[in-house]
Input
Amino acid sequence: MSVALNNVVKMKICDPLASDCRDEREVLESLLPFEAAAVLELGCGRAEKTRTIAEAGKVASITAMEVDRIQHAANLRITDLPQVTFALGGAEAIPAADAQFDIVLMFKSLHHVPLDKMDRAMAEILRVMRPGGLLYVSEPVFAGEYNEIIRIFHDEQAVREEAFASIVRAISAGLFDLVEQEFFDTEIHFDSFEQFEARVIKVTHTDHRLSPELYDVVRRMFMSRLGPQGVSFRQPLRVDLLRRPR
Output
């Protein structure tokens, strides 16, 4: 059995037995050698993890890309992270020269790449990585109470499955080697439904248009879990750590 095929056999999309609740920062620090690294983050969103990594003071540089023009414009107003460069674009067309980055990060963003461009995105990531570089992909597992609320108005099962399939195809083709997989839960907290609506329903990268009836269903389901201190959900995550062969 080839190394690539052996790696694929070992892969799994979820682990129902995983129950550890961890901060993803701990996972990042345990898996990635950030010291003096040139980092590319694809789909940086509000740049929250960008800031965490930059402020740790280890990396040489971070190029933080975002495809949503509204969020990118907001990110450009961030001026206190001198080692970070914000760029507009998607993973399928990375505006960077070949072999520029030691580490590429995708936090819950691979499944947002258009389905017909996922394989191209994997090839682009390979192109801009240095030999031996690491690709860290975290993806939400399609399970859990939080997922049950989201899927009422935005069912991502198919795109998450295809995101996983694109990783499997890239490994099968020998583009990447699988280093390891990690499965764990992260905690997501909301103080109120209004905060949930602002952070989830009204995100600018996806046009969620809920009918009044559907909006009421989502609100009632959320409110049934809300307590005096807000509500915390455990979201299961999968991390796939890949390496570009030397």
About this structure: The mean pLDDT is 94. The longest strand covers residues 177-190. The CA atoms of residues 119 and 166 lie 6 Å apart.
